[in-house]
Design a protein that fits this description.
Layout (H helix, E strand, L loop, with lengths): L8 H12 L3 E4 L22 H10 L3 E6 L10 H16 L4 E5 L9 H6 L3 H15 L5 E5 L15 H9 L5 E4 L10 H11 L4 E4 L29 E4 L9 H12 L14 H16 L16 H10 L8 H15 L13 H29 L4 H31 L11 H5 L4 H4 L12 H9 L23 E4 L5 H15 L12 H12 L4 E6 L2 E9 L2 H11 L1 H4 L12 H6 L2 E7 L7 H15 L4 E6 L4 H9 L3 E4 L9 E6 L1
Parallel strand pairs: 1-2, 2-3, 3-4, 4-5, 5-6, 6-7, 11-12
Antiparallel strand pairs: 8-9, 9-10, 10-11, 12-14, 13-14
Helix pairs in contact: 5-6, 8-9, 10-11, 10-12, 11-12, 11-16, 12-13, 13-16, 13-22, 17-18
Enzyme class: hydrolase
Keywords: Glycosidase, Hydrolase
EC number: 3.2.1.169
Length: 668
């Protein structure tokens, strides 16, 4: 138990542990202020529901371990602090707890002056207090000590560390030492723990952070327990798995941990004697499927459908393990990387490219787009599923990846089209140079997973030309999830009628539902027409099941566009609109040569797709432009706030020229 309290889920996890053959539950949530920050304070009668949890665990044959973290501000030499520590542990003991842990991880290893005078070393201070608490509680059969993990305390090596040597020599032999080889270990073997066992003078208890996700708000780990040799069990006093903060995300991790723990026991079938992560994952998926499609209350189903096994496998593959992606995520990243690296084969100047290479690009693009569509459908299925508890825990992650996949899908669609048109080719090679390598390339075997943030979603993001702009991708999900299926794609000429209808609808709403008497009846078409006719390749459409619900129109080079309008469009408009709107100054266009216009229906349940739509255009513009601007009416506070959050800054006011709007710009 770690991180955010799980409230009613606590009993459920105890049931699962009993069912899967696990035997120990450690209570140590940092959000329980009296576990860490206010460790000196005893629990009030209203907080003594801890007793219920202890009784529940014991009734299921589980060992309940109460952990306390006093290390942040304890004065080891203070008799007052020792009295308060004993009072706290005695209270929990009186609640029925029979196993305890004193944790000194994640703290500063310096001592106050009083402690420096009383103890020979930091290790000596910790060991003295731990031994005293152990004796005070009557030497319980399970008493855990977690040392301070710090590079300087483990130098020059684990075996030669004075800190660990003191712990091994002075800590009472029946006290178990918690150990983490690395914060998040890719693999654990008997050989790698031999040095630890020697210096601690006892087999360690492994604190395994394999599925912990509290270091990255965009990552979730649904993959199997993996990379730990089954032979470890005979060289350890135990293994504690620190799980995802989200309770519902831990079904597979705990299920497969149980399979690993049972490996080799006599009652198991011969073919199961050797632990296989893939086989354990399949068994866990089979059991999880039933729960995923089970409503919280029997006979009550607020969802729209069932999650299929292929969707659940996709979900797990996209949120696998810290050092390893599942098959679906690997395909997603490999195809996106390859499509970018080989986009020249479908360019207008690619006549020398082998036909099979062109076919391969088109084929892999089709596969990539199909996978992005599967991700969007997965999002809808999770939101519309029967088990709402699963929805609330997994929604932020599937929503985040859905949005990133929408941008990537739109980018590949745009790339395949624009490279085939010599008039819009531009410096398309920038598409390759703007994106960065994937996290899999950045992360070596010895690197910690947080070197690269965001998991699969973050890696897809960084492969996009605009990927370094985190403000476009990292936002909290909407409060009200929607199962509506959205798509973002490049504009087609066939969209013109529906697009005009949508923008006209928006225009009428701004006029109170009636046409302005002074407005020309063709104002909508004449407003959108130049962009769609002269620069359609930088326009994107947002659509749902009902049709077009948003659009973003982009102009790559406003100067060039203005000249083309002057020659082919403006002469016909002068009779309709005699008022001159004025030109944008050269000082603006020098830094922000591109322009955009964003429109979306206010009925959008998930307003985040408007941000995703805009990001799709910025991704395309980034390949050939250094900056973009847009014009907003000063009374449109909502849009001004929306754009400001996405990195746009006000650079020009209407009074500087004949236009009324506020100009906001953003460098790319």
């Amino acid at each position: 138990f770690y991180g955010r309290p799980w409230s009613m889920d606590q009993r459920k996890v105890l049931f699962q542990m009993q069912r899967w053959g696990l035997n120990t539950y450690l209570y140590g949530p940092k959000d329980d202020l009296k576990h860490r920050l206010l460790w000196r304070e005893v629990y009030s009668p209203e907080e003594e529901q801890l007793r219920t949890l202890i009784i529940e665990a014991q009734s299921r044959g589980l060992r309940f371990v109460y952990a306390l973290s006093p290390g942040q501000d304890i004065v080891f030499s203070s008799s007052c602090d020792m009295t308060l520590l004993k009072r706290k542990l005695r209270q929990v003991s009186d609640l029925g707890c029979q196993a305890f842990a004193i944790l000194f991880d994640d703290i500063d290893h310096s001592m106050c002056q009083a402690d420096s005078e009383a103890f020979a070393s930091f290790a000596h201070a910790q060991v003295t207090v731990t031994n005293e608490m152990y004796r005070f509680l009557g030497e319980p059969p399970v008493f855990l000590f977690c040392p301070t993990y710090c590079g300087s305390l483990c130098s020059p090596s684990v075996s030669k560390s004075p800190y660990l040597q003191t712990v091994g020599e002075d800590l009472l032999p029946n006290i178990t030492v918690i150990w983490t080889s690395k914060v998040i270990s890719r693999k654990l073997s008997v050989d790698c723990l031999a040095e630890v066992e020697s210096v601690l003078q006892r087999p360690p208890l492994i604190w395994d952070n394999l599925h912990a996700n509290d270091y990255d708000s965009r990552r979730l780990f649904l993959g199997p327990f993996k990379g730990r040799e089954p032979q470890l069990r005979s060289h350890l006093r135990g293994l504690l798995l620190n799980p995802n903060c989200e309770f519902e995300a831990n079904y597979i991790p705990l299920h497969t941990l149980g399979s690993w723990h049972r490996t080799g026991k006599e009652e198991m079938k011969d073919e199961e004697c050797e632990y296989c992560p893939d086989r354990a994952l399949s068994a866990a998926l089979h059991d999880w499927m039933e729960e995923l499609n089970q409503p919280l209350q029997a006979g009550v189903c607020s969802g729209k459908g069932l999650l299929s096994e292929s969707q659940v496998r996709l979900l797990v593959g996209l949120h696998y393990l810290p050092h390893e992606h599942g098959p679906s995520a690997q395909k997603l990243l490999q195809d996106l990387t390859w499509l970018k690296s080989n986009c020249h084969v479908v360019g207008v100047n690619s006549k020398k490219a082998p036909p099979q290479k062109v076919d391969e690009w088109r084929g892999r693009a089709s596969r990539f787009l199909s996978l992005c569509e599967d991700i969007a459908q997965l999002h809808c299925s999770v939101v519309g599923g029967a088990n709402r508890a699963v929805l609330y825990d997994l929604y932020p992650y599937v929503w985040d990846l859905r949005n990133t996949a929408l941008v990537a899908k739109a980018f590949i669609c745009w790339l395949g089209r624009v490279l085939s048109d010599s008039s819009t080719l531009g410096s398309w090679r920038n598409c390759f140079h703007c994106g960065k390598t994937t996290g899999a390339d950045l992360l070596g075997v010895e690197s910690e997973p947080w070197v690269f943030k965001g998991g699969v979603s973050g890696e897809v993001q960084m492969l996009l030309p605009i990927g370094s702009s985190s403000e476009l991708f990292t936002h909290p999900p909407p409060l009200f999830p929607t199962s509506r299926l959205y798509n973002i794609r490049p504009y087609h000429s066939k969209d013109k009628v529906e697009l005009y209808r949508m923008v006209r609808q928006l225009h009428l709403r701004t006029q109170g539902g009636q046409e302005s008497s002074s407005a020309h009846p063709d104002v909508i078409g004449d407003c959108l027409g130049p962009c769609l006719a002269l620069c359609p390749e930088y326009s994107f459409i947002l659509e749902d099941e009902l049709g077009v619900c948003g659009c973003v129109l982009g102009i790559l080079d406003v100067r060039s566009f203005a000249k083309r309008c002057q020659a082919s469009w403006i002469p016909a408009m002068r009779d309709k609109y005699p008022e001159d709107q004025g030109e944008y100054p050269d000082s603006l266009l020098y830094h922000f040569p591109s322009q955009l216009r964003l429109d979306a229906l206010p009925e959008l349940v998930d307003i985040s797709v408007s941000r995703t739509l805009l990001t799709a255009l910025l991704t395309a513009l980034k390949a050939n432009s250094q900056g973009v601007f847009c014009e907003v009416q000063p009374t449109d506070r909502q849009r001004l706030e929306f754009l400001t959050k996405l990195g746009f800054l006000e650079i020009l006011r209407g009074e500087a020229r004949s236009r009324e709007g506020v100009v906001l710009g953003r460098l790319l």
